[in-house]
């Protein structure tokens, strides 16, 4: 079974939060904006409506350069 993209995004946010010493919710908000959504709730709502990120490489950059 393939891993859900939203689960991957949450995992990336958790690693980012730890690396940057910020709260997990703050990391979720940053990642949502990086993926073109106004906030985490907007990203989650869009995901439920079928939106999928086409910018996963920007998440990798976020982890590497922050």
What does this structure look like?
The model has no long low-confidence stretch (mean pLDDT 85). With 66 residues, this protein is mainly α. The protein is built from four helices and no strands. The longest helix has 16 residues, at 5-20. The protein has one domain (5-65). The N and C termini lie far apart (32 Å).
SSE topology string: HHHH
E-strand count: 0
Question: What's the total helix number?
Answer: 4
- Multimeric state: single chain
Mean of pLDDT: 85
Runs in which pLDDT lies below 50 for 5 or more consecutive residues are none
Name the beta content range.
under 5%
Q: Helix content range of the residues, please?
A: 55-70%
Q: What number of structural domains do the residues give? A: 1
How large is the radius of gyration? Answer: 11 Å
Structural class: mainly alpha
Largest sheet: none
Q: Any idea what the shape is?
A: globular
Distance between the termini: 32 Å
